[in-house]
Amino acid sequence: MSYTEAEIASQPDCWRRAADLVREPGGAVREVLPRAGERVAVVGCGTSWFIAQSYAALRESAGQGETDAFAASEMPSGRRYDRVLALCRSGTTTEVLELLRRLRGTAPTTVVTAVPGSPVTEVADSVVLLDFADEESVVQTRFATTELVLLRAHLGVSPDRLEADGRAAIAAPVADGLLGAEQFTFLGRGWTYGLAQEAALKMREAAGAWTEAYPVMEFRHGPISVTGPKSVVWWLGEGDCGLEEEIAAAGGRLVGDGRDPVAELVAVQRLAVAIAQARGLDPDRPRHLTRSVILG
């Protein structure tokens, strides 16, 4: 079993621990995460940027306050925020470090990371440590979902259904025919569009697959033109996607089992590993990638 497979399988236990952190007596974690009414920026790189997008949409839809998500290298200067939340597994990513140094003294900053004592913990005002969700694999799986579960729990979302759906996604066999697909389009709506982006990234990183991601209603504005008999359209939203007839008419296969969208992402992670192994690739160490991007 690869590191990635073991880390994928451990996710439900990590989710429970993250949700428990929010409920801890004393509320240390609650105090450093965004408070209701604050204007918040959420930043990250790669996977963490997509998780930031999902959380920003969730927080706004919950009426907690205006929330913007940025790639750490692209956060605009001069905007005023009540808090900046940085997501950074390794604690060493150059763009996150540079941004937090630039923001010192202008707004409270909190970082969610997996590595105690890493450089990012020295430049952020507050730290939420998820070291139990750290990973050996270059490809992020459990840390990404665990930090999102933490943030969802802080918004009052129980992890109970997700845990059950996640265990089901881990136990289920990879659906027939998916290993032979040539093109994948991931679709989301609202907060799950960030998850669709992350699903596409996992398939590119681990399996080198041709993947794209879009808000669901954008599918008809171009992506449908590449859909055919060797295509999979994967819905990571809640309820029906509303495109069943269009996808079938184009010859594509619609996938999405109605699970919690984070559990649906787990199913994508498992497929990415299976395709990588079928192609003779190492899902733990994808080509040209490192665990952290540190610029010289």
TrEMBL record:
Record-listed E.C. numbers: 3.5.-.-
Gene3D superfamilies, A to Z: Glucose-6-phosphate isomerase like protein, domain 1 (3.40.50.10490)
Keywords carried by this UniProt record: Hydrolase, Repeat
Keyword Ribonucleoprotein: no
Transmembrane segments: none
Keyword hit for Hydrolase: yes
Entry superkingdom: Bacteria
One of the record's GO molecular function terms: hydrolase activity
SIS domain span: 29-167
InterPro entries: GlmS/AgaS_SIS, GlmS/FrlB_SIS, SIS_dom, SIS_dom_sf
Protein name: SIS domain-containing protein
Biological source species: Streptomyces milbemycinicus
